[in-house]
Specification:
binds fructose -6-phosphate; 8-stranded antiparallel β-sheet; 7-stranded antiparallel β-sheet; 36% helix; globular; 611 residues; alpha/beta
Length: 611
């Protein structure tokens, strides 16, 4: 949700900021802007994507060795030039970019209006900037001090970076709740919402913590808390390659990420699952083995696609460990005063590790004494750092806004956790344990085989691309896969889609069925197969179009379907990781066929850092 980039050093700032903003565009793309010091403060901003900003700046003198840039996902105020960042202070000497939400901005704005301030935008950011300016101008202290005083009053989440015309060799940044990474170069510093704009310049980074203020000069990085005490920056080495954030010959990041899955799932299992030795090793979980063994309840907290991974995991954990599991939308969990008992374990699932709802939900559960285990993709992210323990999904940077490879990696991690726990608790036999271990081990190869269906799926996509609605049905482990299929279609193609348990369809959604409605069944061979076939009959009888994902070698559905997608058979516990592949490809090809920007669907942003 909004991407920020800043640079200070000996190089030209603009090209670094521009490239960085393009890499962060997955975080929001309503408008973009930069501020540079070039004979005074120069601010350029434009509604639309970063490329639109770039076009308007062709031919301008953009020389500067210091600058800040922003790509926006609108919260306060519609997407337009006026509301784009950076915002400028009343005296024109300060510029600021912001990612987050200032919840008490209206109150502060009222106070500033009384003092004679006027506002050019509808944003909370401009209010915070003018609040800082007011303190800075009246206190006659440093900008850094004004920032600290202002932030003590602020309620909400923020990363801010300020550029000051009177201090052309210093950037001031601060964070609470939204991510900020500072790359350390030789005589230069790079600031960004994640490491992707930084990795080609330096691998040494500092992840700024909540309530820290950074004073950044070319040769110096000072970190302080809001009480003006110095904090020693903790330097981390980035474990990421440039190739991981480039398209690598694919038309879109989404397609690249779908096709990366045999490797990303393999990377996720590597070093953890040893099928021949019959072992699963997860060091970040191991230290909480006792709490998991004795847990009265496991609560999965997540949003969106990660929530769907939690739903699959609920079925797997209950089956293998006999521990009751609840799956909660983080946004609901946080606000409904949930009962958290001693002995409850919370598993927070998040690709970005920055989703504000999930972060806040686990913080409040932590305060109530729960053990928090994070299943997170982005290393060093806020949720990873807030959790007591957990496991990274190792899917690599996911840049396409629709989550694909992170989902399958989440399922791989959660399945390993459940398998290990079930075995340790003696809830499953040695034989079943070994069988599932081997099934999981075979997933990368089976996913590669499922991907070979791409041309058939492409054809099906072209056939149904003009549908106005779609239904996705599945039972048991495949029900969350149906939900995920419907979500992918909605976000990528803007076709209205519903995911439903196949049997529940009779209790309402069947009224939608007519001869135009495509109904996608996730109908691989499992213990509910016969029942799903009956549900297919029910759709067919009402002339709906049936498209089914079935297991290789199973022709029971052939007579009932309009279109068939065949995937390798896997044990029903493991099958969702494979069955979701056609769902992802279908949404992708339909989105592309409709001429849509599948990597940046409208109104969305990858990392939802506002509640
Ligand atoms: C859907 C999608 C979103 C995210 C959700 C949670 O394709 O990407 O629904 O899954 O915003 O994000 P994370 O997993 O980063 O917490």
């Amino acid at each position: 949700m909004c991407g920020i980039v800043a640079y200070i050093g000996h190089r030209e700032a603009y090209p670094i900021i521009l490239k960085g903003l393009k890499r962060l565009e997955y975080r929001g793309y309503d408008s973009a802007g930069v501020a540079l010091l070039n004979n005074g403060m120069k601010v350029y901003k434009k509604q639309g994507k970063v490329a639109d900003l770039e076009e308007t700046l062709i031919g301008k003198d953009l020389h500067s060795n210091i600058g800040i840039g922003h790509t926006r996902w609108a919260t306060h105020g519609e997407p337009c030039d006026r509301n784009a960042h950076p915002h400028t202070s009343k005296n024109g000497k300060l510029s600021m970019i912001h990612n987050g939400i200032i919840e008490n901005y209206a109150q502060i704005k009222g106070e500033l209006i009384k003092k004679g301030y006027t506002f050019q935008s509808d944003t909370d950011t401009e209010v915070l900037l003018k609040f800082i300016e007011d303190i800075y101008v009246n206190n006659e202290g440093s900008l850094e001090e004004a920032v600290r005083i202002a932030l003590k009053r602020v309620v909400g989440a923020y990363v801010i970076v300020l550029l000051d015309e009177d201090n052309p060799d210093t950037l001031i940044a601060a964070r609470k709740g939204s991510p900020l990474v500072i790359g350390i170069g030789k005589g230069e510093h790079f600031l960004a919402s994640d490491a992707s704009p930084i990795i080609e310049y330096t691998k040494e980074v500092v992840y700024v913590n909540d309530y820290e203020v950074a004073i950044i000069r070319p040769d110096e990085l000072i970190l302080k808390n809001l009480g003006n005490e110095k904090i020693t920056p903790f330097i981390t080495k980035l474990d990421m390659e440039l190739a991981a954030i480039e398209k690598g010959g694919y038309d879109h990041f989404m397609l690249k990420e779908i096709f990366e899955q045999p490797h990303t799932i393999f990377d996720c299992l590597r070093g953890r699952l040893d099928a021949s030795a019959g072992t699963i090793t997860m060091s970040g979980i191991q230290q909480y083995a006792e709490q998991l063994m004795t847990a009265n309840r496991i609560i999965m907290i997540a949003c969106g696609t990660s929530w769907h991974a939690g739903l699959v995991a609920e079925y797997i954990f209950e089956e293998l460990t006999r521990i009751p599991v609840e799956v909660e939308y983080a946004s609901e969990f946080r606000y409904r005063n949930p009962v958290i008992n001693k002995g409850d374990v919370i598993i927070a699932i998040s690709q970005s590790g920055e989703t504000a709802d999930t972060l806040v939900a686990i913080e409040s559960a932590k305060e109530k004494g729960a053990i928090i285990l994070g299943v997170v993709n982005v290393v060093g992210s806020s949720i990873a750092r807030t959790s007591h323990g957990g496991a990274y999904t190792h899917a690599g940077p996911e840049i396409g806004v629709a989550s694909t490879k992170a989902f399958t990696a989440q399922l791989a991690v959660l399945t390993m956790m459940a398998l290990k726990l079930g075995y340790m608790k003696g809830c499953i036999s040695e034989k079943r344990y070994m069988h599932l271990l081997n099934e999981l081990n075979d997933v990368p190869e089976k996913v590669a085989t499922a991907l070979l269906q791409k041309d058939a799926i492409h054809e099906i996509a072209l056939k149904y691309k003009d549908a106005s609605d779609a239904l996705y049905l599945g039972r048991g482990y495949n029900f969350p896969v149906a939900l995920e299929g419907a979500l992918k279609l909605k976000e990528i193609s803007y076709i209205h889609a519903e995911g439903y348990p196949a049997a529940e369809m009779k209790h309402g959604p069947i009224a939608l069925v007519d001869d135009k409605l495509p109904v996608f069944f996730v109908a691989t061979k499992d213990s509910f197969h016969e029942k799903v076939l009956s549900n297919m009959q029910e759709i067919k009888a009402r002339k709906g179009k049936v498209i089914a994902v079935v297991s290789e070698g199973d022709d029971a559905a052939n007579a009932l379907v309009d279109d068939l997608i065949v995937v390798p058979y896997a044990d029903e516990l493991i099958a969702p990781i494979i069955n979701v592949i056609p769902m992802q490809l279908l949404a992708y090809y339909i989105g592309v066929a409709k001429g849509l920007d599948v990597d940046k669907p409208r109104n969305l942003a990858k990392s939802v850092t506002v509640e």
